[in-house]
User: Which sequence fits this backbone?
């Protein structure tokens, strides 16, 4: 029998997680080991407050397979808002590859949310200044999110609509501005019928995969603690929906991540 040459499995990348959160930080060695065992080569640790950014920075400095972003989540009401200068300064770190998590959330907070829209504009302006892509959170706010993205020229840097759960029309509008769409464990849920259809129709070249760990564990672990290793279940779901090999999803989404966040084309450091 001829000798078989076994090619290494294509590696996956978790494009959005929160490894600095206490639930995962206290078991970080296990989390990183599980990533290796499940062919997850890298993960992007996304910032949600400036106060906790030093914790993320220490994480990514210690671990080669981790990257960081800097931003303030739209859910956090603050006495002092982040400034464009603050965000740009923190983004100068070589392992900070994006600005965010930023955006709009009309689900958790009600009332006058003009401060949220102002903060979103600040993040977009910071991203344009330092030429790094945006990580955008959008929940029940698609119209205003797309409007502000257009008004602030977010297309100049692009980025990703993270944990995408909106319609195909919203996805197309975001892609017209150069954005990618990232799917989380939600796409594995049985009742996510409309989202599954979006995942079938989007071009793979604009798709990323994520966990949003420690939240939104995919179907096999729904309701339990999520971690980057479980991003493989998101990839498997997308492969099944599209009738293509898992290896193709892994190869293309990983290439998309590297092109968008690691500067292989036009995005440069501050």
Assistant:
């Amino acid at each position: 029998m001829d000798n078989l040459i076994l090619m290494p499995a294509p590696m996956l990348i978790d494009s959005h997680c929160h490894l600095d959160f206490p639930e995962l930080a206290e078991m970080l060695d296990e989390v990183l080991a599980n990533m290796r065992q499940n062919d997850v080569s890298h993960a992007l640790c996304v910032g949600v407050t400036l106060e906790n950014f030093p914790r993320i920075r220490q994480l990514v400095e210690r671990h080669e397979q981790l990257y960081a972003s800097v931003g303030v989540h739209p859910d956090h009401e603050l006495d002092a808002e982040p400034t464009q200068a603050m965000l740009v300064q923190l983004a100068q770190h070589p392992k900070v590859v994006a600005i965010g998590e930023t955006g709009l959330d009309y689900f958790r907070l009600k009332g006058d949310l003009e401060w949220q829209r102002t903060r979103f504009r600040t993040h977009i302006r910071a991203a344009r200044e330092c030429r790094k892509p945006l990580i955008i959170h959008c929940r029940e706010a698609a119209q205003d999110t797309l409007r502000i993205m257009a008004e602030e020229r977010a297309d100049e840097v692009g980025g990703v609509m993270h944990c995408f759960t909106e319609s195909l029309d919203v996805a197309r509008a975001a892609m017209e501005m150069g954005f990618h769409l990232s799917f989380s464990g939600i796409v594995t849920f049985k009742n996510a019928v409309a989202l599954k259809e979006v995942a079938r129709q989007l071009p793979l070249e604009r798709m990323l995969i994520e966990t949003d760990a420690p939240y939104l564990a995919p179907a096999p672990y729904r309701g339990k603690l999520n971690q980057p290793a479980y991003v493989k279940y998101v990839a498997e779901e997308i492969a099944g929906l599209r009738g293509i090999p898992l290896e193709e999803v892994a190869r293309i989404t990983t290439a998309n991540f590297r092109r968008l966040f690691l500067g292989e084309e036009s995005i440069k450091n501050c």
In short: The two ends are 55 Å apart (CA to CA).
